[in-house]
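Collaboration report, partner site 2.

Our partner group contributed sequences for two proteins of shared interest, and the home lab folded both. The records are reproduced in the order in which they were received, starting with the first partner submission.
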Amino acid sequence: MNLSYWEQKTFLANIDFAIVGSGIVGLSCALSLRKKHPKAKIVVFEKGILPSGASTKNAGFACFGSMSEILDDLTTHSEEEVIQLVRNRLDGLRLLRKNLGDDPIAFQQHGGYELFSDDDTKLYETCLSKIDYINNLLKEVFLGENAVFSVKSDSFSFKKVKNRLIFNQFEGQIDTGRMMMALIQKCAKSEIFILNSTQITSFSSKNGQVSLILNDSNEISAKQVFIATNGFASQFLDQGVTPARAQVLITKPIKNLHIKGTFHLDKGYYYFRNIDDRILLGGGRNLDFEGEETSTLGTTQLIQNKLKDLLRTTILPETAFEIETAWSGIMGVGPQKKPIVRELVSNVYCGVRMGGMGVAIGSSIGAALANLSD
């Protein structure tokens, strides 16, 4: 790529802070850096025309974990660690709403529901029996609130699931396209450059500067670099982050669609909501863990057919629908749910491994990443 003198001088010279990735973490990091360093030159590099991972490709759940997910976390984390995970997710959501406002991101708090298939009797009974335990465990996080989770009868006419749903009164939903637009507009007002279709392919730290290779050809430099690529982080990290593709589809508008709120099924491996009188449904990674452990965007017949089957048999069993489009996003997961926020080498830092909770924790991880700067 041949860059003109003007391009190099204006956009790529004398960079104080370079951020790799323009998703929620990257732009939150950039805005936090601007507050901390009002005069610094901040440039964000994004390999796609839009954020490439999951920030504009997810379902827009403002959530902190369903009942079965929290119980599953307790098998690999201590009670204190799970409490901290939930607290971090809530703090991140509060920060997102504080930074952008509820209207710009279309935040709504209709609550969240967990469904259990007729075949999941054991999991269903376990979750019902643990409601008081989990509510008590999370009481301090929700300032003494006694009923984070409760049981509600199914008023949505779902099929092939238990007729009692576990309700989470604090779960919300947002429009992630509007969220990213608000972040981009705020960055523009803060004189933060966002350069799309510019991929950082490698870096090296030397002599108090970080050398960056842009699109496998151009070498530029920055005083400090912040990696916020989440699902694509394995390019820069040796271990700790594995890409996880999440496939999604959305229907065409459906008249008199009465489904309201956010919904989880099968330990959160499936999730759906009403957006603009359409059903947005995603998940199915558990059908092919190995195949979905990829950083390649795309959809598969196996998972898309399962999503369509869920619509026909469970979610909209007596309603005609048509699929409008399908897509996928790339998450970053690992053996632990805690994100990785640390220095990689001198003057290079990372904030990655959102574990499918980017909407919840992206803002706070971006701020924590910026706090590592000099």
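Second partner submission, folded after the first:
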Amino acid sequence: MIMVYLLIVLIVFALIGVPLAFAIGVSCISYVGAFAPNLMNMLPQRIWSGCFSYVMVAAPLFMFMGELMNECGLTRRLIDFCEYLVRPIHGGLGEVNIVASMIFGGISGSSVADTSCLGSVLIPEMEKRGYPPSLAAGVTVASSTMGMVIPPSSPMIMFSMLTGASVGALFVAGLIPGLLVGVLQLAVCYVISKKNGYHPKLEKLNVKKMLYTMLTSLPAVIMPVILVLVVSFGICTASEAGAVAVFYALIIGFFVYRELTVKAVVAALRKTMKSTASIVIIIGFSTIFTWLMTMQQVPQTVAAMFLSLRLPRWALLLILDALILFLGTFIDVSPALLMLTPILMPIMQGLGISNLQFGAIFIVGLAIGLITPPVGMCLNVCNKINGMSIMDIAKGALPFGLCNVAVLVLITFIPELSIWLPQLLNYQI
């Protein structure tokens, strides 16, 4: 009963335009007021305990670092750097877009930031060079999904808070799936561009310019590598790594690129505070949601019902993949993680899926929701950049989104893709 009540109230308030965080809060508080008023005085404590997490300190720090790097001219340098990386395969701006998203995702940890920053530069430039608007937009939004899979990743940090899995292990677990998405998208982009003649004619290589571009881009490009290494090898925690990343970004911005200003730092801090505040509100109200379900043993009941189905394991896993894709279409990443992890985790454990593999499956699946209408956040950001309808952008992204779906199925049935690296680094699986 509780599950039905919470979902009905949540859906009704969401449909009438109430922000999702408050829709969750209203559904939970109204349930407690109507059916368990004696628990009302515990709600503030539950909200506070849900928000008070040392692990979550890392998320705003990584966001702030990404904003700082955006303000110091990273985007243009990154695109120039990637043009030389794809030159050996005669790649054009489509391939540049995907490779840049791989690197940018490792810097910002945000798919939406990836779409916003790279899309505002690359989409108009791709259209100038003969790419159809739908393809230019589709490549941009689809490749940006790697931002929340390739470490450092804010959703991975949130998943760690919910499950107790190591942040470092989750970062490493997402590395191969994220790179695999990029490689498959590169292959699709290459075939489409080759077939339609979107690849530019090779000009004579200016070695001096290439070396200059590589050297000036290197300080930003190596940042994700440094972050993954220091967290994965236990040199510092994810929160400490976030602080180091912010300090590094300030040094690069002020003293290496010399394009960062105090005004830009304040603007970056303001954006980070707004993003963090919205996430914390969602976390607080979602904590009540999961607490009520746990009290009523909803996760255990759902897991028992699901596992009692007389279906082979592979069929159950495919159903779970489809469920994640379906829910990700209508619910944004943060609330989906907070509300669904406690429900799906017992099912995954019953099927022999480790928390690390579950984290990779869940986040790769939810990332696809960013490019599927109607909620897809990356679609909405891209719509503001080029003015195309969300459906047209989604159609352009479809061939590349199928690469994400293929990777989702692969990591579901080949655990080594997500747990091999953590095992190699002696993490507990």
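Feedback sent to the partner group on the second submission included the following. The mean pLDDT is 85. Residues 262-295 form the longest helix (34 residues).
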